[in-house]
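Posting this for the archive.
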Amino acid sequence: MMRGGNRQARRMFDRMGIDMKDVPDVQEVLIRTNKKEIIIAKPQVAEMVSKENTVFTVTADSYEERELEVPIFSEEDVQLVCDQAGVDAERAKEALAESDGELARAIMLLKGG
């Protein structure tokens, strides 16, 4: 991460239209996927803003990974929700997870009722 001393790199970013600045006082960065969480405590974070997008860089000495419990529903339950609500299996599984596995509630969530 650039901390004021790398003048040449900052000038290069300026010429490319990229504004780079540190994000102060970051306590934690959490990256969550559908199977795990990555927890980064007390990282250094820089934000690079261009015309098209924003990029965050995260630098840290260590991080922690946690595996998440992925709910498993029977194929029969998933198929029943799919058939009743007229959705694909992925949406049916999401509704089942949101409704704690309750079939009727999952179907109602998907039908909007």
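The first strand starts at residue 19 and ends at 23. The CA atoms of residues 36 and 68 lie 5 Å apart.
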